[in-house]
């Protein structure tokens, strides 16, 4: 591209030089020749006037009479009828001469000749000057073309590097502008694309992290159910019951994945329905029973029964599972699930008897990567996102003891 720009600008300058300098040289040459011829003509007129004045005074015409009118390189010859030819100066050699002939009223003739050597020398000097000017113009054009090519090529190289960075997975916008509207437009589009790619990559990473975290608990519960099935292989009824629960776990896994994908694509996707809250609570008691028994802890139920809430059962189950898991990891003692009314909503509180949430965390526990211990810090953030996407909300009501509350819409049928 640089070479093309240099060649283009150089070609334009050469055309301009040819178009202007050649006619200018011809005009200048003609002007110099005409000026020299005019001087020769004027000299002939002056000599003729001197000759006529001497003839009128009856004086003889000699070379000294008009010697002062003869310049260097000039030759003057005077012919008067009845008198010998009078001359002054040295006759120039060559065929290309400047010559002027003037005739008087009495028949006298004055001839002035001058060599073209000085004229040709002056023409050559002027042509050399024009050539130097043209050469300087070409050099200046080359320098300007090189500078302009670098000025335009540098942003293009920079934009190419930006596009290459985007292709290699580095979506950071550079926010560079170059003072050229077209290039600035390209840079703006690349920056916008970089921001869009960054958002997409963040969303994909967030989805992967959320999915891996949220699937961990159902997979653990499913694994425990399968272990129980293996241990009770000789009791068909028990195996059937445990297999049914395992299938429910699989359905829950499917629902979790579907819900995460739906929330990722459209957080406002309307999927809320009226459902029996007792069924979701019962499911949580069954799923977490083995884990609680292993750790010597109890899950206690308090409050209302037979409540019809509005939401997505799978989402509510996922949020409650996250809160119970959080109590298992960070709390102690009995875990209490308390269901109570609150205006037009129903509230499911999850409380334990542990040390509670550190005061320096407070509501920051719902922020990603914020955790009071060596955990991922994702669970509560995903739980709040799921609750809000489902039309509810998740809040921390008390630091000590730690009380998390899930607010759900309540069906008018209650």
TrEMBL record:
Subcellular location field: Cell membrane
An example molecular function term from Gene Ontology annotations: phosphoprotein phosphatase activity
Transferase recorded as keyword: yes
Principal location listed in the UniProt entry: membrane
Catalytic activity: ATP + protein L-histidine = ADP + protein N-phospho-L-histidine
Cofactor(s), names only, from the UniProt record: Mg(2+); Mn(2+)
Keyword annotations of the record: ATP-binding, Cell membrane, Hydrolase, Kinase, Magnesium, Manganese, Membrane, Nucleotide-binding, Phosphoprotein, Protein phosphatase, Stress response, Transferase, Transmembrane, Transmembrane helix, Two-component regulatory system, Virulence
Sequence ranges assigned to domain HAMP in this UniProt record: 150-202
InterPro entries assigned to the protein according to its UniProt record, in alphabetical order: 2C_sensor_his_kinase, DraK_HK_N, HAMP_dom, HATPase_C_sf, HATPase_dom, His_kinase_dom, HisK_dim/P_dom, HisK_dim/P_sf
GO cellular component: plasma membrane
Tagged with keyword ATP-binding: yes
Protein name: Signal transduction histidine-protein kinase/phosphatase MprB
